[in-house]
Amino acid sequence: MRTSEIRSIVHLRRGKEESLERRHPWVFSGAIERITEGSKPLAEGDIVDVVTRQGEFIARGHYQIGSIAVRVLSFEQEEIDSAWWLRRVVAAKQLRETLGLSNNDTTTCYRLIHGEGDMLPGLVVDVYGKVAVVQCHSVGMYHSRSLIAEAIREAYGDQIEAIYDKSSQTLPYKAELGAIDGYLWGRAAEKDNIVLENGLRFKVNWEEGQKTGFFIDQRVNRDMVRQLAAGRKVLNTFCYTGGFSVAALAGGAREVVSIDLSERAVKLADENVRLNFGDDTPHSAIATNAVEYLKDIDDSYDLIILDPPAFAKHHKVLGNALQGYKKINVRALQKIRPGGLLFTFSCSQAVSRDLFRTTLFTAAAIARRKVRVVAQLTQPADHPINIYHPEGEYLKGLVLYVE
What we know:
By secondary structure, the protein is of the alpha/beta class. The protein has three domains: 66 residues, PUA domain (Archaeosine Trna-guanine Transglycosylase, Chain: A, domain 4), CATH 2.30.130.10; 114 residues, 2-Layer Sandwich (Transcription Regulator spoIIAA); 188 residues, Rossmann fold (3-Layer(aba) Sandwich), CATH 3.40.50.150. 27% of the residues lie in helices and 27% in strands. It has a seven-stranded mixed beta sheet with strand order 16-15-14-17-18-20-19, sandwiched between helices. Strands 2-6-5-4-1-3 form a six-stranded mixed beta sheet. The protein is globular. 43% of the residues are buried.
């Protein structure tokens, strides 16, 4: 911001500063009493100052249209300039170095920036070898993408050779930004599309794939499947690129079946299996509806993975989402072989851990099976949860032993 510019100021209603004083990074629209515009009309994505009803500074962040009106970048009166972006990226990188993910010979893909978990709400950055993929979920972050890319380049040096922006599908559609995915800097070679996870190889398509190209958040849980798959026949539903399938085969599964509605997904899952094990592998990939497929499997499988897409992206559809989770889990619990293991997940932020567990309790009761919880799963450490923002714990999972 040039020194001649004056920021717009968001004035809170009386008492509405309490959540911010607890360092929660969101300001809801209902908490705002009025907005004083600065030297230019306020636009979505602008940086604004948030003050109490008495006019005391409390936070600085990106303004946006919607129920969340401000995403807080800082609780200090500091400039959000190139030096600030570099400090935040370096802090995120240092955490990943502490976790042993940076410069790791067996795992070359990880999340560098996880929104509120890294005090950068509205921003996701995943690293795939020498490529960083940026995904903006807010207009403010999208406007800042050049500064973000420059900070990544400075923090990583020659460790990063390309930065790709994949924000077109995650930005608020009403913002009408006309976003087009593409490289912000450099360009990846074809060999850069192959990454390692726990020593296993995966082809990642960040240009056309879902999310940033790979579901990095299941890395630790895939490794657990690898540990428990020996001798089992495995069904991987909603398989996407086949991460759980590859892990199960690496663990000695006697057979793996991968199911996804998307033809492209099952093709890539099959490709990833061949990439690791060649053509002579007990694996089949089928493009079909996973929910329908579960109806007719009898007791064919003794390890089933249910990792569906988010059934509830917001609370308005929570009831329908819970019915969806209950339905697929009832079917899996009814059909799994005695002594089988069910890995079941929800990635819906609107579904709490307790609510998910209650839904599975109901499913088990309907299935009339003896079920024990043997592990509780969550997102990995490179998807950190800001202690002031518990909503960041979006991935919930249970491993169930079914007699």
